[in-house]
Design brief:
rod-shaped; Immunoglobulin-like; alpha+beta; about 25% strand
Length: about 260
């Protein structure tokens, strides 16, 4: 039994037998010849739809962004220019509105535009026994004031309530008659002042005297009615009572009456 013959190359050399199932490179045939390999398949065709969409959207957006940037630069530049012009023109607009000094009104005109001054305090004088009609802050308030007598010195009504050492009490009796069209309600002693020969003035004290009832506290006098009482002062022993001043509304009325006591 013989073996099958092995293939030979052109030079009579025996080709090695390949094992069964071998898929490796095939032997060459004479002078290194090898059959040409089949060309590779062409690459798959690329889909350019995404690139086209990107370019179609991106280019307009890029152009819009550039236009917006240019517009902002122009706006900023115009703002600076407008502000600069406004600042430059501001003095030109204000300066013509200022009136020259020669055109200013005379100094007498502001005085004429000022509100009228309040009437000055009016004083009336009389002596003991004389009456002065005083005007109150209310146009309808008028009171006739009469100084009846001067008691100098006056005696304290209570022994335990005496003037200080070196002082004395002086009492002035007055009559208040309401001759106006309004009710007179006031504390009369608040509007009274005693003036001595040296110009010193004294306010009423709270002492009572034996020579008459004191006119202290609140007094209400209806129209046509009157009140009488003592206004008491504490003054130094050597003081000489010279004048009595009196005004309505606790001394705040414009008109003041003055009586000579000596």
């Amino acid at each position: 039994m013989g073996y099958p013959s092995q293939p030979h190359d052109p030079y009579g050399q025996q080709q090695p037998q390949q094992p069964y199932g071998y898929s490796g490179p095939q032997p060459t045939h004479g002078y290194g010849y090898q059959p040409p390999a089949s060309p590779p398949p062409p690459p798959p065709r690329r889909n350019n739809v995404g690139l086209i969409v990107l370019l179609a959207v991106g280019i307009p957006l890029l152009l819009l962004g550039g236009c917006a940037a240019v517009g902002l630069v122009l706006i900023d530049t115009s703002k600076d220019r407008v502000v600069t012009e406004a600042d430059t023109d501001a003095p030109k607009m204000v300066m013509p509105s200022k009136q020259p000094e020669a055109d200013q009104p005379p100094a007498t005109e502001p005085a004429q535009q000022q509100p009228q001054e309040q009437p000055k305090q009016q004083s009336s004088t009389a002596s003991v026994g004389g009456a002065i009609t005083l005007q109150g802050r209310d146009p309808g308030l008028q009171v006739s004031v009469t100084v009846n007598q001067l008691v100098n010195p006056a005696n304290p009504a209570q022994d335990f309530l005496k003037p200080k050492t070196g002082n004395k009490l002086v009492a002035v009796q007055v009559t208040l008659a309401n001759v106006g069209q309004a009710v007179y309600s006031d504390a009369p002693t608040n509007g009274a002042l005693l003036i001595d020969g040296e110009g010193q003035q004294y306010r009423p004290s709270l002492h009572d005297v034996r020579e008459g009832q004191s006119l202290d506290g609140m007094v209400t006098i209806n129209m046509g009615d009157s009140r009488k009482g003592m206004i008491v002062f504490e003054v130094p022993e050597g003081a000489k009572s010279a004048k009595l001043q009196f005004a309505l509304n606790s001394g705040f009325a414009n008109q003041k009456g003055e009586w000579t006591l000596s």
